[in-house]
Design brief:
By secondary structure, this protein is an alpha/beta fold. The chain contains ten helices and eight strands. The structure holds 1,3-dihydroxyacetonephosphate.
Amino acid sequence: MPRKLAAGNWKMNGGPGSAAMLNALAEAHPAPDCDVLICPPAPLITTLVSLGTPFQIGAQDCHSAESGAHTGDTSAKLLKEIGASAAIVGHSERRTDHGETSATVAAKANAAMSAGLLAIICVGETEAERDGGRTLKVVGGQIAGSVPEDAEAQNLVIAYEPVWAIGTGRTPTIEQIAEVHDFIRETLIARFGDAGAEIRILYGGSVKPSNVEEIFAVPNVDGGLVGGASLKAEDFGPIVAAAST
Ligand code: 13P
């Protein structure tokens, strides 16, 4: 079984004072028996890396090019150089807000991996797609389109985030989570062989201290990608603890 990953996606939250949150988390969990990753807004990466906590720091996005005329974007190469170890790509908020297609996401994931970052590729269905019985088809299509052709299994993480569960307090049933994670596992094994069994599959969408143990106990759930509950040490601490058991 892969080592679990507790990943926090701060989205457009946090500020210079966020160092205190990370220090508090490090004090409570100085040596977690899981990987812990915090993805703050890009301008905070250097600050959080410099704290020297036992946690990895990552980005919420990257550009597909190494450098060039792309105003406002950040390359995976630069993220690596300033100490980031991962980049989330293809989050549903970027697919919606910025019109990112699976092809864009694949190019970004490729850039992240080439730069030596872990690429966390997000997939997940909308409520209408689930109601229409198309969840596995949508997720399968997103994986086929968003995982780059020459992806390396060891630098790849898939995050299953049902769009309707993000920030809503609603979560799928345990059976629904299990069904999608089993399907993703089969898809990864079909593509990567034995290495596909080691790729971490995270669940994301309204993970919180009160539901995390149940969710992390589901087979093929190898951790979580957590939004709101990653912003405070007292909320994220129990999630790190659940990933450590
Ligand atoms: P919430 O945990 O706030 O639902 O957000 C999930 C998410 O989008 C993480 O990437």
